[in-house]
Predict the structure.
Amino acid sequence: MISSILLAAGLSKRMGGENKLTKKIQGIPLIKHSVKNILASSINELIIVLGYQKEIIEKLIDKHEKVKFIFNKDFESGMASSIKVGINHLSDNSEAFFICLADMPMVSSNIYDFLIKSKNQKDILVPTYKGQQGNPILFNKSMKEKIMSIDGDAGAKKILELNKDKILNLEINDQGVAKGFNTQIDFDSLKRL
C-alpha cells in the first residue's frame, strides 16, 4: 500500500494575507490541482493535513474514498508538526509514503507513478529537475521514526541532510517537481506561459 501525505496547513505568509491554496489556476483552486494529480496516480490513500483556514480548504476538495482529512492544531509551529500528524495517521499496512506540498500543482500523476515504480531501490526517493531537488519525496516506512524527530519549519530537508546514504535522486525532465506557488509572482508567471 502506498500513502500520500499532502501538507495543506500553512499560513501562506508570502501571499500577503491571501491563502495561496484557494487561488485559481485556469479557474480551479490550486489545492484541487494538487489533489487531482495525486488521486490520478496509483496511491492507495491520501491524508490531507489541514491547519490554517481548514474549513475553507476542506470545502474545496471533493469527497473521495481515498481521502482522509486530518487537522493539525499546531500548524503555526511549522511544517514539521504537519508531517508528524500525517505520519501518525498512515494506515498500518502502508509500505511507503509521499510527503507532498499542496502548493505544487504541476506535479503530474505520471511523476507519482514513476517514483512508486522505483520505490524498492532506496529508502528515500527524491525527484530532481536539472539537478535541483524537488518534491514529492517518497519515503519507505522504515524512515518513519527518523522523520518523527524533526521539529520547527524544517520540513523533510533535515531528514535528507541526515540520511544522504539512503537517498536516490531521480532526474525527471519536468519542472513541476521544482515549481512551488508561494508568491503572487509565481501565479503571475503562469499567465506568461
